[in-house]
Design goal:
Elements: E1 10-15, E2 21-29, H1 43-48
Antiparallel strand pairs: 1-2
């Protein structure tokens, strides 16, 4: 039995925005949604090279 793309699901961790540590939550990360995993980086931060 092969694994299909629809069988693979990603779920948020408890500390997703900080360091990605912690247990898995029941919040599924939906593929194709804008900013569903990381916060948007402002144009100013991108210009000066600030990524954090």
């Amino acid at each position: 039995m092969a694994i299909k793309n629809s069988d693979v699901k990603l779920f948020e961790s408890q500390c997703l925005k900080e360091d990605g540590d912690g247990q898995v939550t029941s919040n599924e990360i939906i593929d194709g949604n804008v900013n569903n995993l990381f916060q948007d980086i402002s144009r100013i931060d991108r210009t000066i090279g600030d990524v954090g």
